[in-house]
Amino acid sequence: MAEDGGTYKISSEFLESFARDRINGQFVEEFRNDEHLLKLYGYGGMKGAGTYDTLRAGNPDVKEIGAAKALEDRFTKFATDMVGILDGLKEGMLVLSDKVLNVNHITQQGEQDAKDIALQSMMDDLKEPLAMFSGSGGKSNTTTESTSDNLTQNKDS
């Protein structure tokens, strides 16, 4: 991606690298390995996700402390909700990656189609003038191959 007078030009390579390396690689890898996210996943109910899986407020042997139990319950709900939000974010980013790759493919295919159309149009425009030089009396050839053959014959003459 290069800046040219305030205009950003995004290359096909940048799009592909962004989707594959930044989203599918770096972003997703950070979700798997980030210490803080692993703790949050653990608090949110994913056993073995982190070093902790429960918030302990106060002495766990004393069951009568209502405020501590309420804090634990609310924190567990918060962590579970955050895990859901983060999983949604991760899935959204993976969808974004797929869509960026798809757009990149479509634009590359569009460029190739435009080149093919331009080439075919040029060959169609050249058929009749080339046919006049090939001795066919001004009749145009119907295929690109015959035009190419005519070019080869005229070149050899």
Structural class: mainly alpha
Question: N-to-C SSE series?
Answer: EEHHHH
- Globally, the shape reads rod-shaped
Radius of gyration: 32 Å
N→C terminal distance: 49 Å
The counted number of beta strands is 2
Strand content: under 5%
Overall average residue pLDDT: 77
Unreliable runs: none
How much helical structure, as a percent, in the residues? over 70%
The helix count comes to 4
Sheet with most strands: strand arrangement: 1-2
Give a quick account of the main beta sheet: strands, pairing sense, barrel closure. 2 strands, antiparallel
Describe this structure in words.
- The protein has 157 residues and is mainly α.
- Helix content is 71%, strand content 4%.
- It contains 4 helices and 2 strands; from the N terminus they run ββαααα.
- It has a two-stranded antiparallel ribbon.
- β1 (2-4) and β2 form a beta hairpin.
- α3 (66-133) crosses α4 (144-156).
- The two termini are 49 Å apart.
